[in-house]
Amino acid sequence: MAEMDVRQRGEPAERQQGRVPTLTPAVDLYEDREGITLSADMPGVSPDGLDVEVRNNELVIEGAVGVDMPEQMTARYAELRGGRYRRSFALSQDVDPDNIEASLKLGVLTVKLPKKAAFKPRRIAVN
Questions:
Q1: Taking the alpha carbons of 26, 30, 35, 39 in that order, is the dihedral positive or negative?
Q2: Domain architecture of the chain: domains with CATH
Q3: What pLDDT shows up at residue 61?
Q4: What's residue 21's pLDDT?
Q5: If we measure between CA atoms, which residue out of 42, 52, 51, 61 comes closest to residue 105?
Q6: Are residues 12 and 79 in contact, defined by beta-carbon separation less than 8 angstroms?
Q7: Residue 20 pLDDT
Q8: Tell me, what's the pLDDT at 24?
Q9: CB of 29 closer than 8 Å to CB of 37
């Protein structure tokens, strides 16, 4: 069987050259008395392929998207490729970076950014 060039016109250059594109995940931010909750859509990312870090007062989320291919098969043409999600956020001084928590469920990353105790609102008793 003869080899075919199956690239389509208008196909992105990074796909033609085999580069992995960087994707920007959609993010929602919510704030309450306790802190900020960040929700990021990262479908296709497993917990092993996810990296959540605080670097230089910046929250960085990265995740690798893998497309599983059976070992005995070779893709002749594939529109789905792996990719990499990446997003970063500057942290305000009221966030406690030592107590940040993250979880991943059904392709949604949830990061809890608690406020430092000094920045949490508190009720003052009046005598």
A1: negative
A2: 20-68+80-117 (2.60.40.790)
A3: 95
A4: 76
A5: 42
A6: no
A7: 66
A8: 92
A9: yes
Q: Dihedrals φ, ψ of 70, to 5°?
A: -55, 145
Which segments in the chain show pLDDT lower than 70?
Answer: 1-20, 79-81
* Torsion, CA 95, CA 46, CA 44, CA 22, rounded to 10: 60
Burial 89-124 (b: 16+ CB within 10 A, else e): bebeeebbeeebebebeeeebebebbbeeeeeeeee
pLDDT of residue 85: 93
Q: pTM to 2 decimals? A: 0.72
